[in-house]
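Deliverable D2.4 — example input (structure tokens):
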């Protein structure tokens, strides 16, 4: 494990910050001129890289002045490494560039964050064994057995890129077709079993044509975001047979505003679990493919304190993002810069590590109590869901910031 890298920005040297010099995540913030500027989080600040490149202090062919990170991602892995190396050098304590960069620092706490990249396509997976087992028991009354294909392939579905929003965006309670067990026909109404899903999103940074192996897939991933795959469970229960989620997942998908790079997470690599059955060669790991990332979920009701209701770790997943990407391309499916791959709900083996309300309340049968005394089976209007996460070393953490979304009333039904 690497040691904390010391910066001339004092707030980056605290073990409480998500954004030390070891991290350097990329985001986009609203600048004073009303446009989106690419920036990098460092301690309690954002370094305005749009302004830095416009001033001629670095040269990436103007890609840092484009308002999102997609043009830069397309430049490839050598350029990703060059920018990270330049930042770690110039932001290090004692760097001669300090007087040149200080004027381009803005306050992180006062910045309005925007979408960090253009989402080309969105695919969501189902890769936690604990989640898949629990959901099978809740929805189908099964004994916890997995679908026959689950141990062989990363199961997924194609979602809606247009529904992906940045942290801080309100999420309207969705409407859809509903049908209870005792009803003879469906009806249109607002979802009463609205849920979050704690996930990690992988951001594809390189286009591909044709199949790629796991090693190539790992190198194609630019970085990761926290991801909340909002889910209407009552709409899902009626529509999901035989083809799976559709409108129940199309309301919104919230991502955190900062892309934590694969390079920043490199010291926290860890192995995928032991296999019940061998994977086919194109999915076989070449080394540690997961990351040790502590994750938690809190709910904050309207005018009330927040309550942490789940704590888990990404290392519990059965399939890595690289395996998911390799499988996605196995049919010849081309990938684009800015494709977003949701990990699937991240749940651990303990009850306290379940990654969605469906599991936490066991389908609504076991309500969870918030610190205010209020009870929840699913999300209510006014509830704010907050995802947080980070990889923790001895004297620093590589964090993602918060991924926040508030449920607002449907307003149409």
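Example output (designed residues):
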């Amino acid at each position: 494990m690497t040691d904390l890298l010391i910066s001339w920005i004092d707030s980056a040297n605290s073990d409480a910050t998500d954004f030390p010099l070891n991290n350097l995540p990329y985001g986009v913030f609203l600048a004073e001129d009303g446009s989106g500027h690419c920036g990098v989080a460092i301690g309690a600040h954002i370094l305005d890289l749009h302004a830095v490149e416009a001033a001629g202090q670095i040269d990436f062919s103007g890609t840092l002045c484009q308002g999102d990170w997609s043009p830069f991602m397309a430049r490839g892995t050598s350029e990703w490494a060059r920018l990270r190396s330049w930042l770690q050098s110039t932001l290090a304590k004692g760097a001669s560039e300090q007087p040149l960069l200080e004027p381009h620092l803005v306050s992180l706490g006062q910045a309005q964050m925007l979408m960090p990249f253009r989402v080309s396509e969105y695919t969501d997976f189902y890769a936690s064994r604990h989640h898949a087992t629990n959901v099978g028991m809740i929805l189908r009354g099964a004994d916890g057995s997995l679908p026959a294909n689950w141990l062989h392939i990363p199961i997924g579905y194609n979602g809606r890129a247009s529904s992906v929003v940045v942290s801080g965006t309100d999420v309207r309670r969705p409407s859809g077709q509903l049908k209870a067990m005792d009803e003879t026909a469906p009806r249109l109404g607002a979802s009463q079993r609205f849920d979050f899903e704690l996930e990690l999103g992988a951001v594809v940074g390189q286009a591909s044509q044709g199949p790629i192996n796991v090693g190539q897939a790992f190198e194609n991933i630019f970085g990761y975001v926290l991801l909340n795959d909002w889910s209407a469970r009552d709409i899902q229960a009626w529509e999901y047979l035989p083809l799976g989620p559709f409108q129940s997942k199309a309301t919104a998908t919230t991502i955190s505003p900062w892309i934590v790079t694969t390079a920043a997470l490199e010291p926290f690599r860890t192995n995928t679990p032991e296999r019940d059955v061998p994977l086919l060669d194109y999915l076989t790991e070449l080394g540690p493919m997961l990351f040790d990332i502590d994750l938690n979920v809190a709910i904050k009701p309207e005018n009330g304190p927040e309550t942490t209701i789940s704590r888990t770790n990404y290392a519990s997943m059965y399939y890595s993002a690289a395996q998911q990407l390799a499988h996605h391309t196995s049919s010849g499916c081309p990938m684009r810069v800015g494709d977003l791959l949701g990990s699937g709900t991240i749940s651990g083996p303990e009850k306290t590590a379940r990654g969605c309300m469906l599991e936490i309340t066991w389908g609504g049968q076991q309500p969870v109590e918030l610190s205010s005394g209020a009870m929840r089976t699913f999300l209510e209007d006014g509830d704010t869901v907050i995802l947080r996460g980070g990889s923790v070393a001895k004297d620093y953490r590589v964090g993602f910031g918060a991924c926040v979304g508030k449920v607002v009333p449907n307003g149409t039904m």
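Residues 77-90 form the longest helix (14 residues).
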